[in-house]
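Quick one, T. Sequence first:
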Amino acid sequence: MAQKEKLQCLKDFHKDTLKPSPGKSPGTRPEDEAEGKPIQREKWASKLDFILSVAGGFVGLGNVWRFPYLCYKNGGGAFLIPYTIFLFGGGLPVFFLEVALGQFTSEGGITCWEKLCPIFTGIGYASIVIVSLLNVYYIVILAWGLYYLFQCFQPELPWAKCNQPWNTDRCVEDTVRKNKTLMLTANITNFTSPVIEFWERNVLSISSGIDDVGSLKWDLALCLLAVWVVCFFCIWKGVKSTGKVVYITATFPFVMLIVLLVRGVTLPGASEGIKFYLYPDLNIMLLLLSQVWIDAGTQIFFSYAICLGAMTSLGSYNKYKYNCYRDCLLLGALNSGTSFVSGFAIFSVLGFMAQEQGVDIADVAESGPGLAFIAYPKAVSMMPMPTFWAILFFIMLLLLGLDSQFVEVEGQITSLVDLYPSILRMGYRREIFIAVMCFISYLLGLSMVTNGGMYVFQLFDYYAASGVCLLWVAFFECVAVAWVYGANNFYDAIEDMIGYRPNRWMKWSWTFITPVLCAVSVLQPHILTTCSTAQHCPWISNKPLSHIYLLRVPSTVMCCHHNSERDFQRLARVFKNKLTSWHTHDLNQRWANYGTRAEANPSTNCQPQTCMSACKEIRIHLLMVQ
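C-alpha cells:
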C-alpha cells in the first residue's frame, strides 16, 4: 500500500514540477528559473508548423539546380549509389541528431552544446559563423530572381531577342543560329546568345575581374533590400510568424514544380533529356573516383541544411514528447524525393531546348546560377506562352529560396538570442536585434550587387560555406555526441522523449560511419565551381586560399569559452555533461516545498509521512547522480 502511495506521490510531484513558481510566467520551467532565464521559449502551435518549416528550410535551390546536374555529370543513375550511401550514412543521421538535440535541450545551436558537452561548444560557434556568411550571399540569388521576375512583365521577354540596348553586334538569336548553321559553323565561337548578354551585360554588368569592383547596381540593391524586408517580416515574431508563412512558401513551390514537370515531359525532346539524366554509365571505374563521392557528400549536407544550427533551433521549439524520429525520416524522404523529381522537370526542358537548337544536351546542361538564369530562361523563351512559364518558374525559384533563407536566419537568431536571453528576450529587443542583423547582412551583401559582385559571390560560395566546412562540423558533432556524451546516453534521452529507441543504425552512424565518411571527404578538399572560365575566377588554382576553411572550423570547434586550467579534475568536469545537474538543486527545493504542502493539505493524494519518505529517497538519488 505504501508503495502505491509513493507512486501516486511521484505522479503528483511530476505535475507539480511543470507548474511555475509563484509570480513566474506560465511557460517558465524550473531549470529556467534556476539559471535566471526570463521566460521559456515558445513552442510550435502544431506539428504541421514544424514539418513545413523544416521542409521549407532544406528543400531549396540546391534540390532544383544542383542535384540533377551532379546526377548526369557523375554517371546518371549510377550516381545514386554514392548518394544513397551518404544519405543513410551521413545525411539522415546528422539531421536527426540535430533535431533531437534541439528538442532534448530546448536550446539553440550554441547553448545546446553548453548543456550537452561544454568543451564542444565551439561546434555551435562554427555553425553560426558558417550560417551567418551563408545568409549574406544566398539571398543575393533571390535578388537576381526578383529582378528577372520584374523583367517578365514586359510585352516580350527581354532575353529572347537581340534588339535590346545592352546587346552587342556579336549577339545572335537562337532561331537565326539554327537556320544558318552552315554559315556560322566557322565562326560560331565568336557569337553569344541574347540570354547570356542579358545576364552578363544587363543583370550583372560584370566587370573584367574581382580587382575591378565598379559601381553599385541600384536596381539589384533595391531588389536585395526588398527580399531582406520580406525575410524580416517572416521571422520577426518568432515561430508564431514563421509557422504561418511556411504554409504558403513551403507548399506552393511543390505545386509549381509539379506543373513545370507536367509541362516539361510533354515537350518534344523531353524523353532524350530524361534519358540523358538517368541513363547509367556502366563504367565501374567511375564509382572509384573520389570526386564522385565528394559530390554526393557535399550535395547531401547542403540539401539537408545540417551543421548550420538551423535544424537544432527548429527542433528546440518542439514539445518534449514530440516524435521527431518519425518525422525526420519522412522529411528526409521528401527532401531526396524532391531532388530526384526535380531532375525530370529540369532535364525534360533541357532536352527540348537541345532539340530546338540542334545541339547535344551536354552543351546546354549547367549547374548553379547558370541553370536558373541562363539555361532555363532560354528554354522557356522557346515555349508557347513563354511569359507565363517564365513567371511561374521565377516565382517557384523565389519561394524555394525565401523559406530556406528565413529558416536559416531564424536559426542564426535563435542561437544568438539563447546565448544572451536576459538581454535579447526582454520587451521588443528580439525584434530590434533581428532588424539590426538583417540590416548588417544587407550592407555586406551590397558588395555582391556591384559590377564585380559576381566574383565576391563566388568567393563566398567557394570558401565561406563550402561543403568541406559542413563535413568538419558534422565530424565533431558525431564525436561530441557518440564518443564524449555517449551514444547510449543520447539514445536513452531520445527514448524518454519519443517512447522507444530508434533503429540502431543511427547509433552506428554517429559512432563510426558518419565520422569516417566525413574524414575521408575532408582529406580530399573539393571546390564547387560555377565559373565559366578560369580567367573569371583566378583564385580557383590558389591552393593556400582553398585551405583557409581548415583554419577556421577546427579552431572554432576546439575553442571553448571555459578558461584553460592545469588541474586535470577541472578539465574532466569540462567534459562532463551538465544535463545531470541542470535542475537538481531546484528539484530538491521543490521536493521540500511539495512535502510541506502535502503535510498542510489533507486533500493531497498521498499521506504526509509517505510523501516525505519518497522525498528523502529521491533527494538521495539526485545527490548520487550529481
